[in-house]
Amino acid sequence: MSVVSTAVTNTFAGGPLDRCSELRSNAEWLAEQRVAPQSRIVAYYRLEPLVTRGAGGIGWLSPDELAIYPEADLPRIFLGKDDAGVAHFAVDVSSIEDAPSQSPFRDVGRFMDLRAIALRLPVGDPSTLATGKAVLDWHARHQFCAVCGTQTEMRDGGYMRKCPNEDCNAEHFPRVDPVVIMLAVRGDEALIGRQAMFPAGMYSALAGFVEPGENIEEAVRREIMEEAGIKVGAVHYHSTQPWPWPSSLMIGCFADAESTDIVIDDELEDARWASRSLLTASYNGEQGTGIILPPPMAIAHTLMKAFIEQG
Ligand SMILES: [Zn+2]
User: Fold this and answer.
1) Is the pLDDT of residue 33 over 80?
2) Letter string b/e over residues 132-142, b meaning 16 or more CB atoms within 10 A of that residue's CB
3) Average pLDDT for residues 62-88, to the nearest whole number?
4) How far apart are CA 14 and CA 217, in angstroms?
5) How far is the CA of 139 from the centre of ligand 1 (A)?
6) What is the dihedral sign for C-alpha 201, 205, 206, 212?
7) pLDDT confidence of residue 7
8) Is residue 6 over pLDDT 60?
9) pTM for the whole thing?
10) What is the 20 CA–ligand 1 centroid distance (Å)?
11) Alpha helix (H) residue ranges in 146-228
């Protein structure tokens, strides 16, 4: 099959802020922006962002509102500037005891699981929050130098950690883990699978981490063979999605199947060929299909929608 690359913007992509990476190393400018009255800061408590009541938007705070808490205790990430040139930051307030019931957080809204609220937020906000979550999580997990074990220091607005050991000086950067997620296609059917942990009836695209020394096509072929025993040939890129649990990049593809018989491995509870008409019926919410598709937030949903629309 031929698949055209699309202008799809998957949830958690398409953020409105200019990341201004050239400004990250400008410590003086960053220090000014951290306290500038117009700057905006989103707080995270245990990696859950502060959103306004009803999850109508990000619960932005001003530096003044956060001034009651010691700056040094709160790791702060530079997210970028908006169209008006206002600097935006993410801050981890997990060290503040019982932060959800403290001012200014409770005055603004609630800390909520990003996955639960992403689709209720205005376009662009999920991407901004995904960036903050992924980078803050990386700092929380990478406090010590992987080379020499010394405690490292945050630099470049949160986009680097530097080892202060003069014999080492290693620089560490936030990691992004590439994951291939794909539908193998055979004529009018697509290969879908489910893991035991999925909600009852839900089937999704197959997926797996890209390994060192592999390109995307090879990872797609290996994963489909490992998980479902299906041989695939040509691989077609569709779109990608940042997925901040903890920091993956989902690479959505289609793949031309060259065999038919499914042999599942331990990762899957079931895999099957699903016809376009069955997937269309499920997509349209018809009863009795026996299949529930992933929610619109997931790139697997985007891939299934694209497959349906090619019919
Ligand atoms: Zn080191």
Assistant:
1) yes
2) bbbbbbbbeee
3) 91
4) 25
5) 15
6) negative
7) 61
8) no
9) 0.93
10) 28
11) 216-228
